[in-house]
Design brief:
Order of helices and strands: HHHH
Helix content: over 70%
Strand content: under 5%
Number of strands: 0
Distance between the termini: 31 Å
Oligomer: single chain
Length: about 140
């Protein structure tokens, strides 16, 4: 878990740095003022889903797929709910700021989801046997 958290911290710091540089260059036309909070949300959500999956797998290793897809469903529903909440509370009336928020939100969603898939795949390699074909 510590290695995962270290890589997650590195990814989050790289994304914060990128947001800072984009904001310094282009301002709020490209980077929404809520973008740092969105990254914090995804870092916390990724940590929670990783912990959720690890805890369920530790309880019953045979249910890895159920735990993993359950955590991905939790990520999808919480993210969609946050977008709906943002739009419902007035984000739909921001004009171009709405598109900047949605762009940051979905780029963050895909980057953190990709990171989680990468971390799961890299942790599964030691358990696979060379030349083994499963049916």
């Amino acid at each position: 878990m510590l290695r995962f958290l270290g890589y997650l911290l590195l990814l989050t710091l790289l994304l914060y740095g990128t947001l800072y540089l984009l904001h310094a260059r282009y301002g709020t036309a490209v980077v929404h003022p809520l973008a740092p909070y969105v990254l914090g949300y995804y870092a916390a959500l990724t940590t929670a889903t990783y912990w959720f999956t690890a805890r369920l797998v530790r309880a019953n290793p045979d249910n890895f797929m159920v735990a993993y897809f359950g955590s991905m469903l939790m990520r999808l529903l919480l993210s969609a709910g946050l977008v709906v909440l943002y739009l419902y509370t007035g984000g739909a009336h921001e004009g171009k700021g709405r598109y900047a928020f949605l762009g940051v939100f979905f780029v963050g969603y895909f980057l953190y989801s990709g990171f989680e898939v990468w971390s799961v795949l890299s942790n599964l390699r030691p358990f696979s046997k060379p030349g083994e074909i499963t049916k």
